[in-house]
Each structure stands twice: as C-alpha cells, then as structure tokens.
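Note to self: keep these together.
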Amino acid sequence: MLKLSKLTDYATVVLSHMAKDNAATHAALEISEMTGIAQPTVSKVLKMLAKAGVLNSVRGAKGGYVLARSPEKITVASVISALEGPIALTECSHSHRSCEQASGCHIQGGWNLINQKIFNALESVTLADLILPVTTPREVTIPVTSLYR
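Structure:
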C-alpha cells in the first residue's frame, strides 16, 4: 500500500488553511489553534515547507509564514516532495545505485512509467483544488414503473 506520512497529511491541512487567506501572514500558534494540530508539529511542518520553497518565512513581531506562490501554482507533488523527498514508488524509480538487481532488471522501464504517471497525477492537483468545497451529488429519483420495462 502506498502511504504518506502523518506529517505530509498535516502539511496539506496547514496549507489548506493558509490558502483560504493566502495573502495573510500566518503564525504557527494561529494555525495550530485553527487546525487542531499541535503547535510543535505545525512549526516543524512550516519549517520543512519553507526549506522546500513552498512557503516564505517573514521575520519580526508580526512574522510568520506566507505561501510562496498562489494556491493554483502549488501542486500536491511539491508538497509531498517537501515532506517525503523525491516521489518514487521503488528505489530504482529514484536511484539505481542502491538496487543490487539493477543490472539484470527487465521491468525497470515499467516502474519508471508507473512512477511518472503517478507524479503527473499529483502534479495536476493543486492546493486550490484541495480547498474547493466538496459537492454532494444531487438526489436522483427514478420512477418505480421505469424499473419494470
């Protein structure tokens, strides 16, 4: 099973909160209070995202963090990469050096293709997409008489 770390999950929550008011400077305490994520965890996530260039830090009494780009330009792939490192399903998708089987592997290209497709899918979803309201499907009524035709 593919599974992202809890920190990556927290990062999406933190960024979604920030994206709702993307021009504002956000402090760790404020984000913690609004999201329910512990402040030390929020601080750690913010530092990681800033180091990766997803956020910019603002110094001073009214300092904190701001999005480095608009929510439409921050991709899920960039968020995952900031917290998890390069997106790679298998070791050979990222580096051939640590795989003892690389020289005789005949499916390496297949894994690279799969990895690229997943990366492209994650790159196509933005922070702006994540904060869109979830719409529930409209209720559809089907007349019972139409079921017997």
